[in-house]
Amino acid sequence: MKATFFVAAAVLGLASAGELKIDVTRKVKCERKTKAGDSVAMHYRGTLQDTGKQFDASYDRGQPFRFNLGSGQVIKGWDQGLLDMCIGEKRTLTIPPEFGYGERGIGPIPGGATLVFETELLSIDGVETPEKIEEVEDEAKEAEDVPAEETKEEEEGKSEL
Predict the structure, then answer these.
(1) Each residue's pLDDT tens digit in the chain (161 positions)?
(2) Residue spans with biased composition (Acidic residues) (predicted)?
(3) Cα separation of the two ends of the chain
(4) What is the pTM of this model?
(5) Residue 44 is among the residues annotated as catalytic for this protein
(6) Cβ(70)–Cβ(157) under 8 Å?
(7) Is 67 a catalytic residue?
(8) Is 101 a catalytic residue?
């Protein structure tokens, strides 16, 4: 199921009202979601929105990135965009400069850049990682997967009522 959320920079009192865009690309069921203060492990791939050029990826190093969520150890786009996430969930974060590296940039990231991160939550310290990740199906996709005969029978049944 793909869901999109926005967090306005204006909420933080910033002059430029950029938006943090969160696309859930793999939604999963869980009992415990991430919250501020959690120590988490993520895989990610970061690209520049305007060129698509990759500037960093934990996948390339073969090791997840570990940090404390909501503590300022990472950019604001991550601290906010990775909250309420289940282990095994995947999100694509589109992060405006206000939630990234601002006008200064850093290393291969130019000032004023909008960043795109493909992320996957691998673990939350102190939370058991499920043996099997249970995905939440897209309801629209499920409706498309129903055979035409079944849909026709349902329609005929409704007209008889």
Answers:
(1) 445 544 443 334 333 458 999 999 999 999 999 999 999 999 999 999 999 999 999 999 999 999 999 999 999 999 999 999 999 999 999 999 999 999 999 999 999 999 999 999 999 999 998 888 889 876 545 445 555 555 445 555 544 55
(2) 134-161
(3) 33
(4) 0.76
(5) yes
(6) no
(7) no
(8) yes
